[in-house]
Amino acid sequence: MGPTGSLRIALFTDTLGDVNGVSRFLNDIADQALELGRPLKILTSTRFPVRELPNIVNIPPRLAAQLPGYSNLECALPPLRRLFAAARAFRPDVVHISTPGPIGFAGRLFARRTRLPVAGVYHTDFPAYVEHIFEDAGLTALTTFSMRWFYAPFHTVFSRSVEYQAALERLGIEPSRCVRLKPGFNTARFHPRFRDAGFWKSCRIPETGAKVLYVGRVSVEKNLPRLTEIWNRVRARSPRPDAHLVIVGDGPYRAEMQDKLSGQNAHFLGFRHGEELARIYASSDLFVFPSTTDTLGQVAFEAQASGLPTLVTDAGGPKEIVRHGQTGFVLAPGDTQAWADRIVTILCDPVLRAGMGSSAHDHVQQYSILGSFEHFWSIHEKIVGIPRTSEAAAEVTPIADISSFPSSISIG
């Protein structure tokens, strides 16, 4: 333990300055640790800008290259000696690994050399991504094997959703080592109060007309070819010809998607951040997220918090945070007609849209980043044998025992 008896966690991550839900979650828990005075040190190695906080260490990589087709993603090779020196100077009691990339591998090696227990979050379903992008069974099997090897020595593996218990089991991780991390996000950062009807003018989008929003990577693993089909069908039959599809994000499918949606009121804004992103959410009318590979879906939290009815698929983690028929709809990923019908129904019914949006905002207020951070911290205390109060211990629930988690889905 540290000099004050407090648990000390060294967290290794490959993503921190990137634009994605994992990065936002890690930045949020960095803030929580500082506010609560918890000894957490986040270690990374990236060329992307990273906030200068006392609990974040970014060591410039030896080598770094953009991933093909993903200008916002890079593979960085960290200088191990400097990275390990920073970690040793912190004197951690446990190592947490957020990503199975080069920095994650470095964290795994550091834990082995120092004989520290290691835990981590299964943030990204890489085998599913590889399957969607390359459609190669052999490569998917190799990725699965690699993930199984990577997580084998972990004392505890966090899942972001109940849905991904099966994914962890496929990796050979025993249920006794799996814990469902209590979901959470910064509820104050996304709110209907940021709605600004005049905002769209700055994006060269007509201020009038409903706005259907997607936020995330513009790539095939997010099921965006299906969204392209859905929107073309909406435009073909909708009594709302003034409706617009707004895409926030970038990725290798963007050029093809733009071409296929040419002349269909589709607008591609690239990456947006901070309060501008909050205004985009709140100034829209409906959120659509057709991904089948997300372990949680941070954007589904952000959209609902902003007062948007939210449409997600019945595959993956996002369905666990949307109440079907109340805060949005949970739909089969391949049912193009059902998606188009729901979009049209919501766009044409302002009373339904307002009611669902209000319910969505209220629903996600329970998912505070503070609650998620406290659960995260309590599990690591358990790993190193620190006793918890009965109240804190009640939050530690193995993923194998999911009966104590209320269902977020009411499909009628």
Q: Can you put this structure into words, describing what you see?
A:
Strand 6, helix 3 (102-114) and strand 7 form a beta-alpha-beta unit. Helix content is 38%, strand content 17%. With 412 residues, it is of the alpha/beta class. It has helices spanning 21-36, 80-90, 102-114, 126-134, 137-151, 165-170, 224-237, 254-260, 274-283, 298-305, 336-347, 350-364, 369-384, 390-393, and strands at residues 9-12, 40-44, 56-58, 63-67, 70-77, 94-97, 118-122, 156-159, 178-180, 211-215, 244-248, 266-270, 286-289, 310-313, 328-331.
List keywords for this structure.
6-stranded parallel beta sheet; 14 helices; alpha/beta; 412 residues; 7-stranded parallel beta sheet
